[in-house]
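Replying to the earlier thread about multi-chain prediction with a worked example.

Input:
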Amino acid sequence: MFDIKQYLAVRMDWVNQALFQALPPSTEHPVRLHEAMRYSLFIGGKRLRPILCMAAAEAVGGTEKAALPVGVALECLHTYSLIHDDLPAMDNDDLRRGQPTLHKVYGEANAILAGDSLLTLAFEILAQQPQGAKLSLELAKAAGSRGLAGGQFEDLAEEQQAQNHETLMRIHANKTGKLIRAACRMGGITAGANTGQLDALGQYGESVGLAFQIADDILNVTSTQEVLGKPVGSDAKREKMNYIACIGMELAQTEARRLVEQAIEQLDALPGDTQPLQALAHYVVERLT
Amino acid sequence: MFDIKQYLAVRMDWVNQALFQALPPSTEHPVRLHEAMRYSLFIGGKRLRPILCMAAAEAVGGTEKAALPVGVALECLHTYSLIHDDLPAMDNDDLRRGQPTLHKVYGEANAILAGDSLLTLAFEILAQQPQGAKLSLELAKAAGSRGLAGGQFEDLAEEQQAQNHETLMRIHANKTGKLIRAACRMGGITAGANTGQLDALGQYGESVGLAFQIADDILNVTSTQEVLGKPVGSDAKREKMNYIACIGMELAQTEARRLVEQAIEQLDALPGDTQPLQALAHYVVERLT
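Result:
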């Protein structure tokens, strides 16, 4: 019986230690900028993307150790996207993971620059890994105007417009799915995966990413502020598109579970230990129960 | 006699064409984000960093053609930094190159995301070049919290504080110098330059970058709004630190010319055609007369 809680706890520790070492020390000039970067990175976070990256490396016979620095880069990029999404000009969120958002503590200009710096640091870290260019390309494609940034752009544009299932799927695929997909593929790259294996890892990541987003939408309705770290029902309040408003609670739950099964099917042909990736796919929706 | 005007005009055309092709078409989804990215890139600009990059490649015996895509990445990164610097939370500038700044036309959220997308695109382009990882590392180090973003951070923090020459030098070195230095080194990398040659190109870039910034400060006082594309004296108005306030007009002019000579001395040992780099160094301060 695979103990996912223990598995996650151990790897969260690894990732946190590696992050701590990869960031410029908060004593280094400019001190307050480096403090701001650390504030957002260490305010919490499940480290899901780094852990998926390491599990993907293992699934094709590689080592978690080789994938760890790549996971650190992924977490830097993910954190940049949260900082910028929370800004007053964007989602204007005051709370993130139960704590004041970065711009609330350090001001708006510093939050923009801390985000910019974390985005840049992600590429600095990748450039120093074996296969640095291949890894960078994967991350840049997932994060740019055709991925995460484009998804956030469209999400803002679509707020208060008609809720359309197809648009919602595309926004989620770009905002959340592509980075999770990239995390899995990049883990595979560190392990020297071939094209077929990278495709399987990518499809696993796409399905898990979508399931994860649906689970988030469900939690946004059903959870408590204490668990969620932000007000419950905030999506509905700002008329933000989400799955619940779009297809209803019951169908959303069914869809999330279907995606998990679909993700796990992709792992059949992989040569390494796929147990962690299986458990992670289940974990993503088990948060719901 | 080297015709710098003709030289610049030809290369500006190359860079503009290459930029036009490297950017996602403005018909591609999300349309308005891609339009915003193009607005800022094609609003004007001397393309100094791409041209320095190409000239540096030539100076060590490489080709301008191989350096051109790297120049495109540099211009994307430079444009991102201008977009974010202009934001209301930062320098709050309404005009850039004589035109409304991006956030004035597309709104603040979209300006932040267009900047993020251009920063990311720079690394996407570099990752596809030979020596992609080495080039990415060079750019990331110049652009991150220890470079450009850190310099902007400190510039904002120092506004309305005592004008100190040492602080001013460090801010300029980070905000402007490091990217121009990287442009020269990256041109060298595309041409397979050795460590000594990269050092020489880097030192050339540092001196030219500082001379360029001093020249900008001088123009901020002496030019007309028509030439400058933004109000004259805007630095003094917001009590922004600059060389003129710090060491006076006469010393600033002397210092700019000294830096140009210092830059050109670095070129002596390089094996290729260094005439363009020489002319470019002079051009940087000749804008003053």
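Chain A has 15 helices and two strands.

Feel free to reuse this layout for your own posts.
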